[in-house]
Amino acid sequence: MGPVSHGGLGTEVEMPGDQHLKVVLVTVTDKNSFPVTEGTAAVPEVRDLGHFEGELGVGVGGALPADEPLSYRVTVREKQLLVDIAHTGHGRH
User: Fold this and answer.
1) 56 pairs with which residues across the strands?
2) Cα torsion angle, 33, 73, 18, 8, sign
3) I need a surface site. Which of 13, 18, 72, 76 has the fewest CB within 10 A?
4) 15 in Cβ contact with 4 (< 8 Å)
5) Residues 72, 21: contact at Cβ < 8 Å?
6) What value does the mean pLDDT take over residues 29-48?
7) SS3 category, 85
8) Beta bridge partners of residue 13, listed in sequence order
9) Whole-structure pTM value
10) DSSP strand E in the chain: where?
């Protein structure tokens, strides 16, 4: 997957990992946000890509082996959006 870009500016955003996912939430206000948590070996960073015209972009960096595709599942709950990134235990000892 290619690089992710800032929603309003269109500029490319540097993120760790070779695979990236961009999640866009619509009909949000600039008061909407998401909690930033520490990354993992497989998902080293989740980044706010900014608000623009009612959309909030979120970038997910995936550091998976080249032969392992970025596979994910999205679950929507009343006040939560969960993005589960599938991996084979990359980075575990």
Assistant:
1) 25, 51
2) negative
3) 76
4) yes
5) yes
6) 81
7) strand
8) 4
9) 0.78
10) 4-5, 12-13, 19-26, 45-52, 55-62, 71-76, 81-86
Place of tokens 């991996």: 87
**What tokens does 74 get?**
């999205």
Whole-angstrom distance, CA of residue 75 vs CA of residue 38? 21
pLDDT in tens, 69-92: 888 899 999 888 888 888 776 444
Identify whether the C-beta of residue 83 lies closer than 8 Å to the C-beta of residue 60.
yes
Q: Which amino acid is at 40?
A: T
Dihedral angle of Cα 59, 56, 86, 89, to the nearest 10 degrees: 50
Backbone Cα Rg of the chain: 14
